[in-house]
Amino acid sequence: MFEGKTIWEVISMGGFTMYILMICSIVSLGIFIERLTSYRRRAIDRIAFMEHIKTFFNNKDIPSAITYCKTIDAPISAVVLSALERNGHDERIISKAADREIMMETAKLERYTSIVGTIGNISVYIGLFGTVLGIVRSFHNMAQIGAGGISVVIGGVAEALICTAAGLSVAIPAVVAYNYFTRRVDDIVMDMEYCSSEVTDLLTLGKSL
Question: Whole-angstrom Cα distance, residue 157 to residue 80?
Answer without folding.
Answer: 59
